[in-house]
Amino acid sequence: xxxxxxxxxxxxxxxxxxxxxxxxxxxxxxxxxxxxxxxxxxxxxxxxxxxxxxxxxxxxxxxxxxxxxxxxxxxxxxxxxxxxxxxxxxxxxxxxxxxxxxxxxxxxxxxxxxxxxxxxxxxxxxxxxxxxxxxxxxxxxxxxxxxxxxxxxxxxxxxxxxxxxxxxxxxxxxxxxxxxxxxxxxxxxxxxxxxxxxxxxxxxxxxxxxxxxxxxxxxxxxxxxxxxxxxxxxxxxxxxxxxxxxxxxxxxxxxxxxxxxxxxxxxxxxxxxxxxxxxxxxxxxxxxxxxxxxx
Length: 295
Hints:
This protein is about 70% helix and about 0% strand. The protein is an all-alpha fold. The protein has a single domain, classed as Orthogonal Bundle (Farnesyl Diphosphate Synthase). A two-stranded antiparallel ribbon has the order 1-2. α4 packs antiparallel against α10 (about 185-195) and α15 (about 255-270) runs antiparallel to α16 (about 280-290). The two termini are about 15 Å apart. The mean pLDDT is about 90.
């Protein structure tokens, strides 16, 4: 696992360097919103989604420049969602990634604009020739991200999450909510390398199965950490799910059954990537990382 932690740290450094070049600070008064964008996206988080893009791209022989652009675009969408999720109208959080949330550090209006700008910038990056020389592939990357981030993906899942605060959700509804809210962007991370490599058969399906499994694993561990985690280690306010009466895997299944389900999903994820042989080792380590994570 030390090897994986090192790789994640290396990915964070690599991604931050590329993001720094993609998000320069302008001279005019619009500089403030750019500062807010950089505040939330640079130097924070596990960089798990970019890591998956880069590792799987390497396995499939995708050029690093292409993979870096996709990874950064995805990180922008993910960070935008966190900025907006923390707003007073949503989760009203004051801490994210171990520091004040964007609207606390700046102000609510600037945080909204920073999130909007990161989302918009992501699609600009995917449209660039440097992302892929084939315009058809670029269009697929853009379309796929729009779906993963929209009402049939993350936004749809977030809406279900808000409804779940007032109306209890059944287990199948919670599974669908998390497949959209958390799983859609993880699936994007795992399958876009296949799109860039023009692998649309068994390889794509294997990566999709892997992504679905680790996406559910990630959310269940998130639900568990909200109860058992240390806020100083996790880097955000904990215990809010229970206070808000959110429908979660833990609230429906209980802690013990939720933990057992993670192990079942881990086995499913590992079986899915067996086709990559020795090259799958970083992906196996990722499964173990999610199983044992404390933040």
